[in-house]
Amino acid sequence: MRRATTALPMLAVAATLALALPASAQTKDTLVVDLPGDVATMDPHLQWDTDSYSVYRNIFDNLVTRDVAGKIVPQVATAWRYADDTTIVFDLRSDIVFHDGSRLTPEDVAFSVRRIINPAFKSPQLSQFDQIVAAEVTGPAQVTLRTKTPYPALMAQLVKLSIVPKAYVEKLGDQAFNQQVMGSGPFRMRSWQRGVQSNLEADDAHWRGKPSFRTVTFRAVPDIPTRIADLRTGRADITRGLTPDDAEALKSDKALRLLPVPTERIAYMFVNAQAGPTKDKRVRQAIAMAVDRDTIISALQQGYAKPVNIVLTPANFGYLPDIPGWPHDPARARALLKEAGAEGAAIQFLTSPAYDRRLNEAVQQMLGEVGLKVEIVMLDQPTYLRRRQGTPEEAGALSQGRWSCACQDADGVIFPLFRSGSIWSKFSNPEFDAAVDAARVVLDEGKRLAQYRRAFEILRDEVPGIGLFQDYQIYLARKELNWTPTANEAFFVSEMKWQP
Amino acid sequence: MTGHLAGRFGQALVACFGVLTIVFFVMRLSGDPTLLLVPEGASAEQIAALRHELGFDRPMLVQYVAYLGDLARFDLGESLVQRAPVAGIVAERIPYTVALALGALLVALGIGIPSGIAMAVWRGTVVERALAAIVLAGQSLPTFWSGILMILFFGVYLGWLPTSGADSLASLVMPAVALGALTMSTFARMTRISVLDELSRDYVAAARARGLSRMAAVGRHVLRNAAIPVVTIAALEVGNLLAGAVIVETVFAWPGIGQLAIQSIAARDFLVVQAVVLFVSIVYIAMNLLADLAYAAIDPRIRLER
After folding, report:
1. Contact A221 B164 (CB under 8 A)
2. CA distance to A42, A76, A129, A275, B256, per residue, from A110 (Å)
3. Which of the four pLDDT bands, split at 50, 70 and 90, describes residue B274?
């Protein structure tokens, strides 16, 4: 009998343990994220680099957001309508609270807009929002924004607008707020060791629901092999920024999961239309036909890239799949060069260590095969930028780039790259300028697309640039992590789940 | 001695000034720093406005005087990227690099000096050849490669040590070994030569004649004399460790000055890069000065010659 009394509680403990074990194996409290770099600023109205926003966007709610398919959907704003072409009215939720318990009000929304567009605040994101001229509270749950001109990219820009608490920011001041940010997002900041790591803690009562993870740790691990080692040992659960070669090597690892996603980043080649042998349109067209983009995608990108026909990705508004791209046709390229009298012409391919050297060499060889002598000019980054943004004579004939406007709109890509007067453009075509100018100030999507069709037809014929491919972001996660990455490279931990 | 000290100190100051000047001009003459600071889509007007605001449109000499003035007040400016004082950003990273450098120095001294002694004492034997192989490996393997190999072997395969980070003493082991390897080899070779040199002296023969064993002669007499060049090297090597930290800290995600340098270059954080370069240069000069002084303190001949 005595043995039975001691055995019973032990059995109970054993039974509890047996029941508890599978459950505890299924939950995971802390998600560890290896980011390539450190958080530059926690203040969401300052830096917009991927490492910073991967962390701070979890701490805030946005006015609007994008769903997995890329559609703009409500978040703090429940609905919006145009009062006229430059006035847009937002209805807001009234049930959102900041992490200190205070309610998120229309004043906070208006304050957030005014703060980021205030030139004295010097936000690096100013150029993304400076079309907004006023933000006013127009009702108990309503804010009205006014833009300089009709501004079609407004909603795409507002996807990136985090709402900050007015009273808290004003009390602390900008510099202290950056150190101790507070928002209304699914996670609150627990600690930030600059350069080392940042720790976030779930807000269980969040209006969008309780996040699956209790805490999140973001670490700065610059070296890719080290990040992969962290994933393999379980020291980290997810990372990003793998190269296609890394991804190929990890395909067979059963404990890990590759999450590649096509982004809005366009890999392109600039072709100087205003100086040197490439001033002749036929030479530029010959280059477009000499570059074998399929080989670049399969050999350099290991398939982690999608072919494009224009200098824009399908993730951007304004992408037109039916505009024909230049075919790979070395014979016609050679003929065109001969016709232009440019056989054996020497051209410069400007580059810096920031760009993929292999791509330079591949293009050099491809153009060599059709009879162009390409000299790869390796420059330090400041010199590269000075020359590339300088006069057509010093900009070189070719350069490569990967362009993202973080707005998923053609306006943010072909306007800065090819509109005459832009520092990047070495191309001037009044008809093209008129089309891209018109497309930026008309709200009707059909009319905008018609303008972009005209613009891309001109670009196709004139070749001041060549779209190479839609670039991928490659995430690597533990097998158990369930998440769907998106084209805008948002990193919302509240959308991630742990499923052993 | 006071004259010697003052002279060396003066030289160090001149070197510091030279470094400040070189850093200033190299960072500006290589290109317009404004271009690195603006976002890709910035217009020509935005670039011009920022250039004006940062003062990069002023004559170079005016900028140089302003820069020296700021440094005289220990004002390193505010990081344009991080919106925080540069001095604070750099200071937060220093303890990590100091810990790493000390760890590496410990590895280097702890392995290098005994190996050097052993190689000298057992010259020509299998012991020397085995140790020479280790020394050669430490000297010739680049840290970005040896670091990754160590992570794969001790971190991933054996699971003994954390693969990255700076959250425990265990995290320090691999970075310290990777960083200390080259210095270890230097110490081993220096110690070997130094001890061999001393072993051939008459006082060693005299000590042996008095009946001292070879090891006792080495322990009691040779090491003290052989230490002179080694101490000098130790101070100089600290400078090399700081330079090597750039790669090791990147590989092991160790959040020190070296990683900060790389991150700031990537983030185009101009003022932080400048501050890191200044800091490392000044530490290097200070260590050289220290080596000079230590040399003089240990070896009276140096003082007497002056």
Report:
1. yes
2. 20, 12, 13, 47, 40
3. confident
* CB–CB contacts below 8 A, A to B: 125
Q: What is the mean pLDDT of chain B?
A: 85
**Contact at CB, A381 and B36, closer than 8 angstroms:** yes
Alpha carbons B273 and B279: distance in angstroms, whole number: 10
Q: Which two tokens stand for residue B137?
A: 């490996």
| Token pair listed for A219 | 């670490």
Distance CA A38, CA B249 (A): 14
Q: Are A156 and A72 in contact (CB under 8 A)?
A: yes
Measured between beta carbons, which residues in chain B are less than 8 angstroms from residue A220? 253, 255, 259, 263
Could you give the ipTM of this predicted complex?
Answer: 0.84
Strand-pair category, A305-307 with A197-202: unpaired
**Which residues of chain B are at the A interface, by a Cβ-Cβ cutoff of 8 Å?**
30-33, 35-36, 39-44, 46-47, 81-84, 89, 92-93, 148, 151-152, 155-156, 159, 162-166, 250-253, 255, 259-260, 262-263, 266-267, 269
Chain B within 8 Å of A194 (Cβ-Cβ)?
Answer: yes
Extended strands (E) in A64-196: 64-66, 72-74, 77-84, 87-92, 132-139, 142-147, 187-193
CATH class of the structural domain A59-168: alpha beta
Query: What does the pLDDT look like over B138-170, one tens digit per residue?
Result: 888 888 899 999 999 999 999 999 999 888 899
Torsion angle of the four alpha carbons A82, A84, A88, A92, in this order, in degrees rounded to the nearest 10: -60
Contacts of B99 in chain A (CB under 8 A): none
Chain segment A386-396, per-residue pLDDT in tens: 899 889 999 99
Chain A, residues 4-23, CB within 8 A of chain B, namely none
- What is the average per-residue pLDDT within A24-52? 88
B36/A385 Cβ within 8 A: yes
pTM: 0.87
Cβ-contact A278, A369 below 8 angstroms: no
Written as one string, the DSSP assignment of A183-246 is -SSSEEEEEEETTTEEEEEE-TT-TT---S-SEEEEEE---HHHHHHHHHHTS-SEE----HHH
User: Which CATH architecture best describes the domain A27-42+175-260+480-498?
Assistant: 3-Layer(aba) Sandwich (3.40)
A419 pLDDT tier (thresholds 50, 70, 90): very high
Cβ(B223)–Cβ(B231) below 8 Å:
no
Using a CB–CB cutoff of 8 Å, tell me whether A43 touches chain B: yes
Q: Do B30 and A383 touch (CB under 8 A)?
A: yes
Q: Kindly state the DSSP code that residue B156 receives in the 8-state scheme.
A: I
Residue spans of the domains in chain A: they are 27-42+175-260+480-498, 59-168, 262-472
Going from the N-terminus, what domains does chain B have, and what CATH number goes with each?
Answer: 2-72 (no CATH), 90-298 (1.10.3720.10)
Which residues are paired to A32 by β-bridges?
A217
Enter the CATH code of domain A262-472.
Answer: 3.10.105.10
The owner of tokens 């009298």 is A341
Best probe of the B interface among A227, A423, A424, by most B CBs < 10 A, is A423
CB atoms A219 and B165 under 8 Å: yes
The answer to whether the CB atoms of B92 and A195 lie below 8 A apart is: yes
Interface mutation vs chain B, best among A39, A196, A476, most B CBs within 10 Å: A196
